[in-house]
Amino acid sequence: MILPIYAYGNPVLRKKAENILPDYNGLKELIENMFETMYDSNGIGLAAPQIGLAIRLFIVDGTEIEDESTADFKKVFINPEILEEFDTKWEYEEGCLSIPTVRADVSRHSKLRIRYMDENFKEFEEEYNGMAARIIQHEYDHIEGILFTDRISPLKRTMLKNKLQNISIGRVNVGYKMKFAKK
Q1: Exposed site from 62, 88, 90, 115, fewest CB < 10 Å?
Q2: CA separation (Å) from 26 to 4, 20, 49, 95?
């Protein structure tokens, strides 16, 4: 089932998400719905807060990106914890399904180490680099209540103020279902 994506301005996007347990009601179906929703909106990642749930869960599928770090990069991250971000920082233009039509350069570390559980609650501790690391950091920010627009310069944010306000009230044209903060 395709779920609506919560737009900029919805309070759930600013909440620090809570861990979940293996008996979380409907988890398997939720993950399937998240993948279906992400694909329908042409995304490469989707965090639970973006569909209105303040839980520590996000999914990624970077397999379509031409980058060696994302060749087999389709995963579920449950209760993740970034243990370390390291190596050089690099800027890259990011966008977000919750903030459609807005793109901006964001500086992020090129490598990270993360501990998480998969959809079967099997624990992993892994290192990622390149685009895979960037996608994880972007989605991880969502479960921390951080948006990519928080990571751009204050001047750029000021320049985007009207556009962000319009998104929050539904004055944006997208090809997927959205839930707006106010109408």
Answers
A1: 88
A2: 17, 12, 16, 29
Strand partners, 129: 111
What digits encode the pLDDT tens for the residues 56-97?
999 999 999 888 888 889 999 999 999 999 999 999 999 999
**Given the residues 18, 32, 68, 139, the one annotated as active site:** 139
d(CA 14, CA 126): 27
Please tell me the predicted confidence (pLDDT) of residue 43: 96
Indicate the fold that domain 5-179 takes in CATH. Peptide Deformylase (3.90.45)
Asked if 124 and 118 touch (Cβ cutoff 8 Å), the reply is yes
Give the residue from 35, 62, 63, 64 showing the smallest Cα distance to 51.
Answer: 35
Across the strands, what pairs with 93? 105
Tens digits of residue pLDDT in 16-56: 999 999 999 999 999 999 999 999 999 999 999 999 999 99
> Strand pairing of 5-6 and 178-179?
parallel
Closest CA to 28 of 121, 98, 116, 136: 121
Domain parsing of the chain, residue ranges: 5-179
